[in-house]
Design a protein that fits this description.
It is a single chain. The protein folds into two domains: 226 residues, NAD(P)-binding Rossmann-like Domain (Rossmann fold, 3-Layer(aba) Sandwich); 67 residues, no CATH class. The radius of gyration is 22 Å and the shape is globular. It is of the alpha/beta class. Strands 3-2-1-4-5-6-7 form a seven-stranded parallel sheet, with helices on both faces. Strand 1, helix 4 and strand 2 form a beta-alpha-beta unit. The termini are far apart.
Length: 351
């Protein structure tokens, strides 16, 4: 009997040691990405002549376009803002000498992909970055607080904007719980965050399969690590991004194609009100530079060490704490206050 107990505890202790040894190994892999996941200097250009980046006019998409051009690829940049795309195309051409193709399109709309397919059909595309996405509301809110859920809305008029700003300031003063989540609609979010990614993969993946190489990066979000209140629609759309990416990678890995979902937390972009950069809120350039080092790290990554830690912390926190009313209300008030402060500073500097 004694020998059996000794064998059990020895085996159990060995299993625990192996488990935590593997965990430690995985941590070191994320800390030393260049050592664990080295990329040859010609890695990206060996995938094909062209890279396609959606949502490329600013933020993360803009930096992916610049980074891939710096790696020797010609770039197709896509968004609905022609002026900023043309400015980026000029910058890429001047700094890298690479060819740039500008496609102006609004991914929130229907029936746009036949023209995109026509524009891309003759290109040898080695990298696709599905970055474009919209947030239903910068200020987090409960699902039914969105006044335009069933409408396909366009650009808000000034009266709507005036009401929105008033609501932000009123929330900051803790006087109201009126709707802050306006201007976006279910159809626009689904079209931009979900449909666009699927259709772009459908357009570009066949060429990669035929050539037996290629890279697809689908940008998700760190808040999709758990069912995230106050961003329910956005987080759900990003979970689709992750599951779709992981399924495709399982299907096409044998064809030499890398398909990865990248799930950042804080990156200083327009989507989060250009928050100041720090250890956890990265600049778009720093985040993109870091995330490209993790291309061989699996079908889903956070793209940086600090965001990997945040993901672990969020997933380790009991949901009862995350879902507490005080926490949710505090999140809403904090974001609204930050936005109000940003607008106040902008108004003062413009005066």
């Amino acid at each position: 009997m004694k020998s059996l107990l000794e064998l059990f505890f020895t085996s159990f202790g060995g299993a625990v040691a192996v488990y935590y040894g593997v965990k430690l190994l995985l941590v070191t892999r994320m800390l030393y990405s260049k050592m664990w996941f080295p990329l040859p200097k010609s890695f990206f250009s060996s995938m094909g002549e062209w890279a396609v980046v959606t949502g490329a006019s600013e933020g993360i998409g803009r930096e992916y376009a610049l980074a891939l051009a710096e790696q020797g690829m010609n770039v197709v940049i896509m968004s609905r803002t022609k002026a900023t795309l043309e400015e980026l195309a000029k910058e890429i051409g001047n700094t890298t000498g690479r060819e740039v193709k500008v496609l102006v399109t609004d991914f929130t709309m229907d029936n746009i992909f036949s023209d995109i397919e026509e524009q891309l059909k003759d290109l040898n595309i080695g990298v696709l970055v599905n970055n474009v996405g919209i947030l239903p509301s910068v200020v987090p809110c409960r699902f039914l607080e969105n006044a335009d859920l069933d409408q396909v809305s366009g650009v808000p008029d000034m009266s709507q904007m005036h009401n929105f700003l008033n609501n932000v300031y009123r929330l900051y003063n803790f006087q109201t719980e009126q709707s802050l989540c306006i201007f976006q609609a279910i159809t626009r979010v689904i079209n931009c965050n979900v449909k666009t990614m699927v259709k772009m993969c459908k357009t570009i993946l066949p060429g990669m399969e035929n050539r037996g190489r290629g890279v697809i990066v689908n940008v998700s979000s760190g808040i999709a690590s758990i069912p995230f209140p106050m961003y329910s629609l956005y987080a759900a759309s990003k979970i689709f991004v992750e599951r779709f990416s992981q399924g495709l990678q399982a299907e096409y890995k044998k064809n030499g194609i890398i398909i990865q979902a990248v799930a950042p937390f804080g990156v200083s972009t327009r989507m989060n009100g250009y928050q100041s950069t720090n250890v956890v809120t990265l600049s778009p350039r720093d985040f993109v530079k870091s995330s490209l080092q993790y291309l061989r790290a699996g079908d889903r990554t956070y793209g940086s060490i600090s965001h990997t830690f945040l993901g672990w912390l969020l997933q380790s926190t009991p949901l009862k704490i995350v879902y507490a009313e005080a926490v949710l209300n505090g999140l809403q008030e904090f974001v609204a206050r930050k936005l109000a402060q940003k607008r106040s500073m902008a108004a003062l500097s413009a005066a």
